[in-house]
Amino acid sequence: MSTSLTWTELPPNLLAPVMEGVILLHEAAELWDLFLLNPGQWFHPPEHLLPAVDRLTLWQMDAEPTLH
Predict the structure, then answer these.
(1) pLDDT at 60
(2) What's the rounded Cα separation, in Å, for the pair 34 and 40?
(3) Calculated CA dihedral for residues 44, 35, 22, 66, nearest 10 degrees
(4) Whole-angstrom Cα distance, residue 50 to residue 34?
(5) 15 and 28 in contact (C-beta within 8 Å)?
(6) Tell me: the pLDDT tens digits for 8-61?
(7) Counting beta carbons within 10 angstroms of the beta carbon of residue 23, is it exposed (0 to 12), middle (13 to 18) or buried (19 or more)?
(8) Whole-Å CA distances, 61 to 25, 26, 56, 58
(9) String of b and e for 32-63 (b: at least 16 CB within 10 Å)?
(10) Which of 5, 18, 40, 68 is the most core-located residue (most Cβ within 10 A)?
(11) Model pTM?
(12) How many CA atoms lie within 13 A of 58 on its CB side?
């Protein structure tokens, strides 16, 4: 099994949730690999990444500024 080195160049929108403990580093790296392999395309993440995608979505909703 080979290990991706993509995690060394994670974009801020994936690195920040890793640093905050929202998703694990290997989850972020695998998601980033999928983004790189499917540029500009919508893809359905594999079943094992769905919990990470859910946590990431909730984190993004909490992190976005709101108007009061």
Answers:
(1) 86
(2) 11
(3) -90
(4) 13
(5) yes
(6) 788 988 999 999 999 999 999 999 999 999 988 988 999 999 999 999 999 988
(7) buried
(8) 20, 22, 9, 5
(9) bebeeeeeeeeeeeeeebeebeebbeebeeee
(10) 18
(11) 0.77
(12) 9
DSSP code for 10: -
Q: Which two tokens stand for residue 7?
A: 């995690």
Look up residue 22 and give its DSSP letter: S
CB contact at 8 A, 25 and 62: no
Q: Which two tokens stand for residue 54?
A: 């859910």
State both tokens at 43: 């893809």
- CB-CB contact of 26 with 3 (8 Å): no
Which helix H or strand E contains 3, and what residues bound it?
A: none
Please report where in the chains the tokens 């890793």 appear, as a residue. Answer: 18
**Is a pLDDT exceeding 80 seen at residue 67?**
no
